[in-house]
Structure formats: C-alpha cells, structure tokens
C-alpha cells in the first residue's frame, strides 16, 4: 500500500472511531478560509453548553474525553469522581499505564468493591502519583465531584502540592471561605494563583457545588496549559510568513511566524497537528501565510496552536500575558492581562484604606493597554528599567513600595519574572540588587456508569 493510501486509511479510521464531522471551513471575520476542510468535534447535545464547546472539542481531540454511546456528552450533568480521575490520568498521558494495571488489584479503600473494573487501573495510577488525600478512605466513584475535590485533584496532577502547603494559612478572600476545609485552603490559593479556577461574581467560591462535565473540560484545558509550561513549553504569537510540509516523519513541516515583537521564528510541526479555531479544528497543513496564530512550542516543535481572528487580538502589543502585584503601606494593586488564543482579557483590583475596587472587561482592557503603551516593554529590557517605567507610569515613589511582583510573557516566547521587596534590606550584605529576574527566550471509560448507553 502506498504512503498516501496508508495516510488516508489512518484518517478514515480516526474518523470512524471519533465523534466529529469534516466540512468546509466557514468564512469568518479576518479569514477568507472557506475552502479549508475543518474537523468538527460534535455531540448531539453540544448546544446545551455553547460556552464549553471549544473546551470539549479540545479535550476530545486529545482523547481525554469521548462521550456516551448515544452520541451525547451531557455537559451540564455533574462529573462523577471516577470520570474525573480517568480524565486527569489521561491528561497526564498515563492512559496506557492505567490500562496495563490488573483489574483484580485490591485497593485499601472501604468501598473498593464499588470501583468499576474499567476505572480500577486509573485509580491505581492516581494513587501511585499522589492524586488522593492521605486521609481519603473512600473513592465514592459514582458520586458527583465537588469544586473543592476537583481543585485538590488537579493541583496534585500539576505537582503543586508543596506550593499549596506553603499557603495553608492565607485565607482566600471569599464571602463563603468558611466552607473551604482548613486542609484545602492552600490548594484553593494555588489554583487561583495559577488561573485554574476563579470565584463567582458575588465573591463566593462555592466549594461544595458540583462540577459539571462541561466545566470539567474547561478546568482540564487550564491544567493542560500548566502541564505544558512545566515541560518547558512557551507561547508564541504572530503572523505566519511561511509554511512548508513534506512527506518526512514525524514532524514533517515547518512554520515561520513573525511575532508581534517583529522577530521571525521558525518551528517544526506535524501536518496532522490539530489547529483549534473556536470549537472547530483544521489540520496544520491547511495553515496559510497571513494567518494569525497562537502557538505552544516545546523544544522547537509546535505541539498546540490556535487560529486567531485578526480582529480578536491586539497586534499592537507584543505582550501575551502580564501579571503585576504591587503593595504599598496603604494600598495594594493587582493587574492581569491576557492577549492570546483569540481572547483579550484583563482585570484590575485595588485596595486602598480598606476600600476594594475591581475593574473587568473592556474597561480593564483599555486601561491595561494604555499602561502597556506607556511602558513600551521589550524582551531585552533589564529588570531595573521595567520597574522604573512601571513606577513612573503609576506615579509611585520607589521608597513607598513594599513588594512588587511582575511576570511578563512576550509574543516571541520570552518570559521575564521580577520580584522586589524593600524588607530586610539591612540583611543584604553583598547583593545590591534585590530583583530576582528570570528571563527565558468521554470516554471509553470515564463515562461508564451503570447505564447501558454509556461509551465502552
């Protein structure tokens, strides 16, 4: 069989075993792309949670979730604990290891006999990788998973437990923080710090609320971002200037991207890498010059990418992400800004003389982008220059500053971290600079319950 026929046969198999359709890529704003073939991951009930369609499709494309036999995903149904465990193990790329475990293995849980055989291997892998609390006596496999339980699970999947333990005495600023168990306070803090989860608009966390299956895919997507970053992956954003593919394997293509810094960078990519566009996907070999993309790059290879509408990204700034935490004697300020994956998001929080103020949405985006214009940040700037420009823009005297943390991610993948504090300066005998700078260029099984219509 020729190479072309083999590739086509493999694609057909992929089509047959996965719930999606292939159609012509619809013409959208900024894309004259109506002749590109899209791969659309579909469930019959996808319309029940439109907001989650992109997350569901992403996790389906990564074989983390697959859905039920009747063609539904049930995005608004509570995710069961066993489903969440299986999803987490799959996201950690340990599915094969889980399937190799003996289904006869006895586990030291009081409800061991209630653990389904099809999920036992995943529970074993989760145990071996420390995803459960040491005091957990029951799995309660078919019980709905609460927000608190999911946070604990995913923070451990991200191997951030030590960070969580360091923040056990910092009570989260939620009206219902009393509902967060004392032993989980640090996990909530780290989850919020890493953008894994947020509170609600009424400033509640609702620790005991159930997580829906749709919400779970969003949490998994954010966890996936964290896992990739831990592996050393960086985010690059810009306009494609050249695309080339050959028949060589495995990474049979190269893509050159002119980042919003003006620099042109070239990376390897496999032609069958799925490029996400909202809730739909195309294969990488259908990318074109002129496309705006957000690419996740690991060791010189694009492992994930997003096709971005030109009118949904700020091409005038070279900043992909910005986080600022600033503390004075009588004032605190937090600024967050994200400009990637076709989304612009910003939030500004200030506290002065006991009064709190929060700005979100368009108003926050406008204010932060004005600040970025003033700062004129580039990857080559020193920490001293960045701090000086920031304090000048915010009209803050350095002597009045108690603590400052800055994290900047540029569109060429460079990351700069700055930590500055005026405390204990007398203890610094040899160091003139207190700045710490880091500059870096559903499931076959997860949905199986007692119903006959579940996917096996």
From TrEMBL:
Coiled-coil features, chain-numbered ranges: 312-339
UniProt keyword terms in alphabetical order: Coiled coil, Signal
Compositionally biased region (Acidic residues): 420-456
Keyword Repressor set for record: no
PROSITE patterns in alphabetical order: SLH
Domain annotation SLH: ranges: 39-102, 171-234
Keyword check for Glycoprotein: no
InterPro entries on file: Cell_Envelope_Struct_Comp, SLH_dom, YusW
Region annotated Disordered, chain positions: 412-456
Lineage: superkingdom: Bacteria
Secretion signal span: 1-26
Identification of the protein by name: S-layer homology domain-containing protein
